[in-house]
Amino acid sequence: MLIPPQDPIGLPVAPAILVALKVFGFFLHALCMTLWLAGMPIAAALQRSRPRVAARLFRAMPFAFAFGINAGIVPLLFLQALRPELFFPATILQAWPWLLVIPLVLAAYTAAYLAAFGVRPAAAAGTASVLLVGVGIVFSSTLTLAASPGQWPVALAAQADAGAVRGLFLHLDAQVLLRFGMAAGLALGTVAAFLALDAQGRDREEALRAEARPLVPAFALAGLALFGGCGLAYAARPTAALPAAWGVLAGAGALLAALAAMAYAWKPSRGAALALGALQAASIALSAVARQVEQGLAMAEAAPAAPIVRNEWESLALFLAVFAAGSVVLAWMGRVIARAWRTDPAKPPA
Amino acid sequence: MDFPVWLVDHVTAPMLIPAVAIPHVIVAMFAVGGGILLADLVARARRDGREEALRLLRRQTRAFMLLSLVFGAVTGVGIWWTIGVASPETTRDLIRIFVFGWAAEWVVFVVEIVSLMAFYHLWDRVTPREHAILGWIYAGAAWLSLVLITGITAFMLTSGAWAPGAGFFTAFFNPSFVPQTLLRTGAALVLGALGLGLMLSLQRGAEGDRERMIRRLSLGGLAGMALLWVGAAAYFWTLPDPARLNLIRAPILNAMMAAALASGFVVLAALAGGFLTGLRWLNPPLALLVLLAAAVGVTAGEFLREAARKPYRIERQVFSPGFRVAGADAIRARGLAAASPWLRAGMAAGGSSAEDGARLRLGEAVFSHHCAACHAHVGYNGIVPIVRTWTPELIGETIRNLSRANPAMPPWVGNEEERDALVAYLSRFAQGRVAE
After folding, report:
1. pLDDT tens digits, residue range B158-184?
2. SS3 sequence, B248-307?
3. C-beta atoms of A162 and B365 within 8 A
């Protein structure tokens, strides 16, 4: 058995608390990640035919990257804390592809800024899109391998050297590609919601709204088809660990968001855009929870040994105190930012 | 022992960590110190109503934001990526001890991102007071992030009174936490002053404003230099004896310390020059050279910290090859192969360069799991040049007395069969034989 034993240090508090934080972080990450995953190629493709929409997407990308990368730390941190015995072997077995994620993200993030600053935006966004597909595949592959220790001997045999590994392996199977397809489907829905919300913002020109309007249902329906198709195939796998209720909820969320997109296209309004945004966020949240439930079940089946729990509450208290203080500061900054957005840029505040 | 070992020719997997960490540390320190100094410069320019200075500072903030949010943030994640694959046992232990410390740092990082973006994008769209507060929020959050990460990295060098079962704060407030916080805060101010100075040297016009700013930056840098040297002295004082011995006895580390000191004097002279003469010394090539000298100092400092830690990854908790200090005797009793399923599975999977016998294959696998974390074959700390003039007997005795022969080495934890196999494997390179 290659799964390492539980270590004597264990977890500071009950795993359920870490799982809840992991799901929360994954939801935040998915909100931004889905925007950049589809937003980048769409912006590149629309630069000539829908320049206003493309410009708005280009402008949003640096923010999506900044918060998406930051929020992505959270689920990985808690996954490493909860399941080091599964996570680390998978990343070591494919060490080079896993490390490649860093230069790829660095290049894609830089390209996002270049596009936002108007430096060959289509080329920059196109390049970033290709890089991000690579990043997505590596993530999907590594996390699939982490939950599939039965595949580790295969990965080891493919690269073993001197009793060790070379890190030159990439696990690819239908599951990896289907999960990536589901993420891409959700991403199209997020772009649809972004376009609706952005077009209904204050002081937006009518031309932008006209450009965005037909795109919203088109992206939402394409996203639903991709998400639904890949999701059905994913759930139909004989080894699927996802409880049916979560699968149905995630699918229903995506369907409702697509219906909201059609309602928006039929009669655009700020309310319709807000409803679409809320339903898309809910759809992402349901998918995030479903994915985390599935990952948790698969990992628990693969490695049933429970970690030691130290019941050391001081570090959780520190985190909660920092979280509370940070939330107060963020709320103050949010108020300042919201007021500034309402201010005419031509007139500095008093 | 619990995880697969990742082989990286010539450099070793753990040496990829400084390759990512050093550029990150330089940029991250610049992001902290530069943030403090930018907030100060902007607040003063606003107070004095110097519009030209604000125009220059806004352009600096844009470059600063790109560097810290893109390169700083992604390479920071990169360190985490690299330590996980290069030193998984250490990373697992650190994460399990400090998971909420890292989570707290994440919150602080969110505050950093929002405040810095708001500071730049809302430059003229909020009141001067709000803008100044945004700048100071960024500076405070960036410094807090430095403090949180220092508690974790300092623990690796001085674990203090911590033992499994002890609390988070026992680990966090370890003996070198305060000295390292001082040192890093000082280094951050120095790098911030030099980085912003370089940007200032590339800008034109507003001579009076630039003159004032360079003096202010130099003053901040000098304050940083004072903190850095106080922190460095206290840091050296708090080092455990073996770590201090490591620094004193290895010629390469003596040279590193000399390089760090020399870079310190170069930077000190430049900062004093900037404070006394203002713009006169400031031109892009010179500013770049001084920044590079500081980067050499930081690189040497990081290298010294890594080297001082040997034979531990986490002082008195985890040895360099990845086995726990407390578990070393148990591994020795069973043998390395029996204690490491990945070693056995790796051997069974084949892929050996030592095809001429089971003993050599075992020796090669033992080398991968016991030695390859610090020794390449040829390259970083290369084993081939080390044993070239040795006899098999000397190799055997050295392995048997590994930690006595060299206190920077971990104890040997294999059994007799594994030692014989390793001797046989290394003897292939001894007495004039070269790596195949």
Report:
1. 999 999 888 899 999 999 999 999 999
2. HHCHHHHHHHHHHHHHHHHHHHHHHHHHHHHHHHCCHHHHHHHHHHHHHHHHHHHHHHHH
3. yes
- At B347-395, the pLDDT tens digits run 998 876 655 688 999 999 999 999 999 999 999 999 999 999 999 999 9
In a domain, A203, yes or no: yes
Q: What domains are there in chain B, each with its CATH number?
A: 13-319 (1.20.1630), 328-432 (1.10.760)
CB A92 within 8 A of CB A151: no
Q: For residue A61, list chain B residues with Cβ-Cβ distance below 8 A.
A: none
Say which CATH number the domain at A174 has. Answer: 1.20.1630
- 8 Å CB contact of A81 and B99: yes
Quick check: helix, strand or coil at residue A11? Answer: strand
CB contact under 8 A, B341 and A101: no
Range of the domain at A79: 15-295
Residue A324 inside a domain? The answer is: no
| A316 domain-assigned | no
Size of interface A-B (CB pairs under 8 A): 252
Lowest mean pLDDT, pick from A80-84, A257-261, B246-250 = B246-250
Whole-angstrom distance, CA of residue B282 vs CA of residue B217: 12
- Looking at the structure of chain A, the number of domains it has is 1
Partner residue facing A318 (CB), from B96, B100, B106: B100
Tell me if ipTM is over 0.85: yes
Interface contact flag, A159 B351, Cβ < 8 Å: yes
**Chain A residues whose beta carbon lies within 8 Å of the beta carbon of residue B108:** 322, 326
